[in-house]
Amino acid sequence: MNETMSVTRLIMGASPAVQLVMLFLILLSVISWVMIVQRWLVFSAAEKGIYSFEQRFWSGMDLSQLYKEGTQLHKENQQVVGMENLFRAGFKEFMRLRQKSSMDKDAIMDGSQRAMRVAYAREEEKLEKHLAFLATVGSVSPYIGLLGTVIGIMNSFLGLANQTQATLQVVAPGIAEALIATAIGLFAAIPAVIAYNRYAAKIESITGTYITFSDEFSSILHRQLYSQ
Amino acid sequence: MKMIVYNGYPLSVFVAVTMHSLVLAGLLYLQTSRTPDVLDIVQPAIVKAILINENPQLRNEELLEQQRLIRLDDQRQAQAAEQRRQQTEEEQQRRQQAEAQRQKEQEREQEVQQQEERQAVARREQQEKERREAQLLRKQREEQEQRQREEQRQRELAAEQQRQREAASNSAAVEVARTEYELVQSYSSIVHDLVQQNWSRPPSARNGMTAVFRIRMVPTGDVLDVAIVKSSGDPAFDSAAERAIHRSGTFRELQGMPTNIFNENFRTFLLTFRPEDLLN
Question: What is the pTM (predicted TM-score) of this model?
Answer without folding.
Answer: 0.52
